[in-house]
Amino acid sequence: MNKDQMTPMERFAAYAKGESIDRLPCVPVVGNGAARALGCKISEFRGNGPLIAAAHLAAYRRFGYDTVRIFTDLYVLAEAMGATVCYPRDETAHLETPAIADIADIGRLRPANPWRDGNLPALLQALEIAQKEVGHQVPVSGAVVCPLTTASFLIGTDKLIRMMRRDPEGVHRLCEIALESALNYAEAVLDTGSTFGLTEPVSSNTIISPAYFEEFSYPYLKRLCEFMHGRGKPVTLHICGKTERIWPLMADAGADCISIDEMEDLRKAKESVGHRVRVMGNVATAETLLQGSVADVRAETLDCIRKAYDNPKGFIVASGCSLPTEVPFANIDAMLDMTREVGWPITADKLAAMT
Fold first, then answer.
1. For residues 302 and 355, what is the distance between their CA atoms, to the nearest angstrom?
2. CB 315 within 8 A of CB 279
3. Burial, 110: exposed, middle or buried (Cβ in 10 Å; 0-12, 13-18, 19+)?
4. Are 149 and 199 in contact (CB under 8 A)?
5. What would you report as the CA-atom Rg of the chain, rounded to the nearest whole angstrom?
6. Around Cβ 50, how many Cβ atoms within 10 Å?
7. Are 237 and 226 in contact (CB under 8 A)?
8. Are 271 and 257 in contact (CB under 8 A)?
9. Residue 196, SS3?
10. Cβ 344 vs Cβ 4: under 8 Å
11. Angle, vertex CA 328, rays to CA 196 and CA 238, nearest 5
């Protein structure tokens, strides 16, 4: 932390006002890799809020990035509603069995109670601890899995996609109950004093068409954004994979910042919706941060800054998605170090002179 002249809170506040900052915000999206900073096993996070908090605090203090994001896996809401999730000893959890086998069984589903069900109470406890420890200096954030993705885990992704054509009303029924769970968890996150980001990987155009996104995802994202704005909080929305054709709809839904995955072009995002939303991204998670050298990470971080530093609504240097668990610490350091070296203010001439 002594490498920076501002805390993340100070940096974000000044940046939002158009005031001078020491560097751009930088968020390598550390997920379960936080276990490596503490030296524990990922499976130990199950039901253990203090350990989740300790790991993420250790990672934040080790690297000095700009958001502490408390998140373990995409299945937390679906699990809280009856899906079966497998917890390997030292890998991220994965879905084992959806909550229901057929839409006829939807009556068995109940919205999640975040203070009681599944691993949600542990995540809330972790948020409370992190907020108390470092919330005065860095934003502490939960991750809310959005309705279409949770719906896919309630009945199975392949089955849900087939239902979009054969039983669209069934898809909406699943999304409605998933939305209730998302809103319940979002409210609980805010009650800890933290904020949250929205994650909706099944809405990717790698998986569904823009038309299906507009019909089955957009209405529920909009309602989540309206809830967040009603509590006076901005919204960051991440959708994995290809998203170029839905960037305007992501902005229309109410996102204040959109997180762009690595296969998309930050310059195109800036040109398309940069006058409406802050842009965040998009150093490649596997090819560069996991498998690349320090020099590779530095070069790609600089390239991202060149493409989007002048985005009208602002830019956050970030990984394209959550980091793989085994990303070398030196590569996370390199991403932050390059952002620090670029510093502020940023000009085209300054960037052109850097290698």
1. 8
2. yes
3. middle
4. yes
5. 19
6. 11
7. no
8. no
9. strand
10. no
11. 25
Domain ranges for the chain? 24-344
DSSP, residue by residue, 284-314 = -IIIIIITS-HHHHHHHHHHHHHHHTT-TT-
Give this prediction's pTM.
Answer: 0.96
HSE, side-chain direction, 13 A CA sphere, residue 348: 3
C-alpha span between 95 and 33 (Å, rounded): 19
Count of CB atoms situated within 10 Å of the CB of 248: 14
What residues contact 317, with CB distance under 8 A and at least 6 apart?
Answer: 24, 25, 26, 27, 283, 301, 304, 305, 335, 339
The dihedrals phi and psi of 281, each to the nearest 5 degrees, come to: 155, -165
DSSP state of 116: T
Helix axes 157-166, 168-191, angle to 10 degrees: 130
- Is the preceding omega at residue 2 within 30 degrees of 0, hence cis? no
Place of tokens 């002594």: 2
Of 182, 155, 172, the closest CA to residue 77 belongs to: 182
Architecture of domain 24-344: Alpha-Beta Barrel (3.20)
For 103, the token pair is 């839409």
Tokens encoding 271? 């040109």
SS3 147: helix
CB atoms within 10 A of CB 269: 24
| Block residue for tokens 């933290």 | 194
Mind listing the pLDDT tens digit for each residue in 201-246?
999 999 999 999 999 999 999 999 999 999 999 999 999 999 999 9
Q: For residues 195 and 143, is the Cβ–Cβ distance under 8 A?
A: no
Pairing mode, strands 94-97 and 84-86: antiparallel
Nearest to 151 by CA among 106, 94, 210: 106
**Secondary structure (DSSP) of 170-185:** HHHHHHHHHHHHHHHH
Exposure string of 199-221, with b = 16+ CB inside 10 Å and e = fewer, is: bbbbbbbebbebebbeebbbebb
What digits encode the pLDDT tens for the residues 236-273?
999 999 999 999 999 999 999 999 999 999 999 999 99
